[in-house]
Amino acid sequence: MRFSLMKTVLGLIAAICCLVPAIAHAQMPRENAIQTALLAETETPAPGQSFTIAIRMRPDEGWHGYWLNPGEAGIPDSFEWDVPEGITIGALSYPVPERLSISGIMNYIYHGEYALLAEVTLDGGIALGTALPLRVQGQWLACTDEVCVPESGAFGIDLVAGSGAITEGAAFDEYRTRLPRPLGNEAAFEQVGETLRIAIPFPQSAAISAPYFFSRTDRVLDYSAEQSVSRNGDMVIVEVPAEQDAGVVTRIDGLLKIGEHDGLLLAAVPGNVPAAGAPIAGERINSGAMNADIATVLLALGGAILGGMLLNIMPCVFPILSLKALSLAKAGGEESAVRRDALAYTAGVVIVCLGLGAALLALRASGVAAGWAFQLQDPRMILFLLLLVTAIALNLAGLFELPSVSGGGRFADRDGATGSFFTGALAAFVATPCTGPFMGAALGAALVVPTIVAMAIFAGLGFGLALPFLILAFVPTLRARLPRPGPWMEGFRHLMAVPMLLTALALGWVLGRQTGVNGMTLGIAGALGIALMLWWAGNRQIAGKRAWLPIIPAILVTLGALALVPTSMPAQAGQAEGGALDAESFGEARLEELRAADQPVFVYFTADWCITCKANEAGALNRQAVADHFEAQGIAVLVGDWTNGDPAIGRFLERHGRSGVPLYLYYAPGGEPEVLPQILTVGMLTGLGT
Questions:
Q1: Considering the domain 182-279, what is its CATH architecture?
Q2: In a 3-state reduction of DSSP, which class is residue 126?
Q3: Considering the entire predicted model, what is its pTM?
C-alpha cells in the first residue's frame, strides 16, 4: 500500500533514534519531562455512587505526550491501578489530540497540560469514613521534535468515603470541555481501490472547522497522507489512502475533530458511502455551533415566544402575574396609563431574560456546565427569593404599603411605570425554573447558535411572557372586558397574598432540600425577621410617621441570612427520591450498563425548584399504575437530580438539545432514545414498552 512498509520502517527508525539519547543518559538521574498527578473531583466520594478522577499530565516547555493511538511513531500510555476492594475504575478518556508531522511521520500528540479522565464507582457497602487510597503505576513517552524519552512513575491520592461533595468541580469541568463527545449514530466505511472512504452523520446546519479523522483502529489508513473531507447533505465524507487492514476489519473506531479541542467519538461499520460533496476543509471554526441559517433562527425564536406565552399559565409564574392583574385593574380605561405600564412591564421581562441569557452564555464560555435556571442552584438565590416573595405577600395582605403598589395619590403617575418594570423583572426571574412546552428545544438551540442569535432567542422568550399584557394594553376591545375599578380590588389584592405565601412556602422547601434542616430554619427565621420589620413599618405608616427606619434592620436581616446560609449540599440533602418507581440515581456508566444488557430504561431529570417537574412526578411518575407497568415490562428507571447543579447532568442535557429540566427519555432495547413531552400523563407512561 503506497510505501506503507517503507514508512513503517522509517517510523521504527525514528523511534529508535529518539530513544538513543535517552539510553545514553540512562545513568544520569533526571526528573520526568511530563509531570503527572492523580486528582479527584471529590475528596469524600459517596458509597454506591460514581465520581471522576484525572491523571493530569504537564509536559515541560518543548515536550509533548501522546494520544491513545500515537500515530506512526510513539508508544501508547500504560497505567496499572492499585485500589482497595469495592472500587471499580473505568476506561480512561483522552482529550481531543493535535497533529505533529516530523520528517513526514505523523504523530498524534498533546502540547501543554492535558488530563485523562476515568469514572470511579464505589461499592454501596463501603462504610462512611473508610480510607480509600488510589494508586497508579504508569509508563508513557515524552518527546521533543528531536528526542524521545520513555518515562514512568507511581503516584496516587488518598480519599475518604463520605458525602460525595464536589471539591474540584471547576478544574474537572475544564478538563471535560477538552473531551470528545460520542456520536449517536454509526458511521459507514468502504474501500474503493486504494482509498478508504468514511461517511459520518453530521447535521448540514452544524459548523465544522478544519476537520480531521483520527483513527483509533491501527493499520486501516495512511496516517501521514492528506485527508479529503467534504459534506454531502447530513454526511461528512472522509477520503484517505487505505492501509493493509482496511479491507478486512469489521469496525473502525476513531475521532472526528470538528474544531479546536472539539471532536466526536464514532464507530464505523462496513456500508455504502455517498459520493463526495462540497469540500469543507479550511472552514472558519465556530466552536461546534450551528450556522445561524434563517430557518433555524425563526424556528428557535418562534418556540421561545410561544414557550414564553405558555409560561403565563404555569404555577410558578401565576402568583407574580397577580401583581400585573392589579395594575391593569387599577388603570381601568386610561389608555395611556395602560400602554405605559405594559411597555414598562415588557421592558422589565425582556431585560431580565437577556441578562440571564448573557450570564448563562458567559458561564458556558468559561467552561462551566451551566444551564437554564442556573442561578436557582445557589441556595443564596433561593433564600433571597424567599425573603422577597414573603415581603410581597405581606404587602398584598395589607401589612404595609408601597406607593408603587398601593397606587395612592401623587406616586401613581410617577411610579406606575417603575412598579410595572420591576413586576416584569420579578416575573421573568421567578419564571426561570419553568421549562414549559416549546421552550426546551428553543433554549437548547440558544446554547449552540452564535451569541447574537442566542440573545435574540432569550429576548423572544421575554417578549412571549409579556405578550398577553401587551395585547390587552393595545387592543381596547379586549381590555373593555376587564372589570372596572372598584372596591373589589382591595379584596382581590388580599386574596392574591395567598398564592404568594404558597410560593414562599415552596421556596422554603427547596431551600431545605438544598441545604438541609439548618438552611431551611435559617430561611424561616429570616422570613420572620422580615415580617416583624415590615409590621413595624406598617404601624408607623398608620401613625403617620416615616416608614424608612424599619427598612435598615430588614436589610441587615437579609444580608445576615445570605451570609450564613450553607452553600454546600449536606450528605442527604438535595437527592432525588425514586418515589413509586424505585429509581436509581442517574449515571452514564449505569445507563450504558443497562443498555448493554438490552434492558429498557426510562431516564428523567428533575430539580426541586422545577414546578413542572414536581407536577409530573405527582400527577404521573409516582402513580401506582405506572410503577406496576414498569415492573411488568422490566423497565429500569434512572433519575438525575439537578437541584444543586451537576456538570455531568448539564452536559448530558446539552447533548440532547436541552438547557434545563425537565427531560424525559425512554430507551427501548437496542434503540435510540425517545424524547417524551415535557408534560406527562399516566397513559403516556403505561404505553412505553408495549
A1: Sandwich (2.60)
A2: coil
A3: 0.44
